[in-house]
Amino acid sequence: MEYVKNNSQQLIELAHYKMPFGKYKGKYLISLPEPYLVWFQQKGFPDGKLGNLLKAMLEIKINGLEELIYKIQKDFPLN
Q: Taking the CA of residue 79 as centre, how many other CA atoms within 13 Å lie in the half-sphere pointing to its CB?
């Protein structure tokens, strides 16, 4: 979770980031099923920001912290 470590702005971005392609295009990363994230892990995450965000989201889901992301979405809405 190196991408979100000690950076609240990046955590807010993670909470509001949407999948840019594929079957789940336009869905918040928090909405992606865990098996889909595990598949990415097995096949290799994309390079760059998206890959880092997907890795972070997988860690959040594995550790049962989804409510944290939903709270951030609610408390820090994008205008």
A: 0
